[in-house]
């Protein structure tokens, strides 16, 4: 099919869907599937951070984290812990969490401690369930962070600082098969 025919066909379909929305929706959704069951429900009013990255783990928990360079979050770190970074663009001392572990089964969450900025990092889950985040922004661009898939509640991020020779920002991770 040549380029002009494709453009003509696209415009014809666009006009059809614009002029006949009810007929188009009937064509796209069969009669038996018109009444989809389900609902949206608010599970938490707030978890204290903005979700920039999320990863569902196999232990029915979700790791959620955001950037650190936009200032404090709405979730304090427990026990008076703080993140100190003299090169941070907003605050040299940050006593707020930028990572959360959400438990789907109990609908609860808790703060996780990050010392580096994981914004723009990439992640993968290892066969044992460990989440590995590589790179990030500012002080996190040469860091590897891991979060083990534990069943208990007393685990947190492990940061391997200055382990990458080159900066990693928006990198891609692939799990390679054993051969």
TrEMBL record:
Domain spans labelled Glyoxal oxidase N-terminal: 52-178
Pfam families xref list: Glyoxal_oxid_N (PF07250)
UniProt keyword terms in alphabetical order: Signal
Gene3D superfamilies recorded: Galactose oxidase/kelch, beta-propeller
Source taxon at top rank: Eukaryota
InterPro entries from the UniProt entry: Gal_Oxase/kelch_b-propeller, Gal_Oxidase_central_sf, Glyoxal_oxidase_N
Name of the protein in question: Glyoxal oxidase N-terminal domain-containing protein
